[in-house]
Write a structure and sequence with these properties.
With 196 residues, the protein is mostly helical. Helices cover 75% and strands 0% of the residues.
């Protein structure tokens, strides 16, 4: 076997896996986890039905892969926005803005998350949600340690911030046109007013 053949095979495998994940994200977003069968996912790809099982043992495994990939990409973006903040008000504002902008830019991912929030909790995947409550709690704890933020229960605060982001994001996404600035301003004002 040549390197070219091996490289082509690896690219094909990566493309097939990506196609299955993209199809799963779309189908789970439309029908919800409970309403989806593996055949629904495969139909969206044009791949042979048995191909699915070369990459995932079952529906739950592809669901977990969608959550992991989706969550990681958006969390990186949100965390980078918070990391560049020059103080607590900007920390709040930039994190929410990055999240709300991601929703507007990728409605398929948001539809997936919104439609499957209950499943995320039931499968223990809620920590993968794009706003990343665990990472946010770490960032808040660092702000408390540096004296930038008064001592608060960072676990409660992080989960409250995530809940507000998810709910406001859902409402914002339903508006025509979606109002990233308005949602960001509201969430920021709510937390700044509530913590000072």
């Amino acid at each position: 076997m040549t390197h070219a053949a091996g490289g082509r095979r690896e690219r094909t495998k990566a493309a097939n896996r990506a196609a299955l994940i993209d199809a799963a994200r779309a189908v789970f977003g439309e029908l919800g986890y409970q309403g989806v069968a593996v055949r629904d996912i495969v139909r969206r790809t044009g791949l042979a039905s048995g191909t699915f099982y070369n990459y995932f043992p079952d529906k739950e495994a592809v669901f977990r892969a969608v959550v992991a990939e989706t969550g990681a990409a958006v969390r990186r973006r949100v965390r980078a926005a918070r990391a560049s903040a020059r103080g607590f008000p900007e920390f709040i504002e930039s994190g929410y803005r990055a999240y709300f902008a991601a929703i507007v830019e990728d409605p398929a991912t948001f539809a997936f998350l919104r439609r499957n929030l209950d499943v995320l909790g039931a499968t223990g995947l809620e920590h993968e949600v794009p706003l990343g409550a665990a990472e946010l709690a770490e960032d808040l704890a660092e702000l408390v340690a540096r004296g930038v933020l008064p001592a608060v229960d960072v676990d409660y605060c992080a989960h409250a911030m995530v809940a507000i982001g998810v709910e406001l994001g859902a409402r914002m996404a339903e508006r025509e046109p979606p109002d990233v600035d308005g949602a960001t301003r509201f969430a920021t004002d709510l937390f700044l007013g509530g913590l000072t």
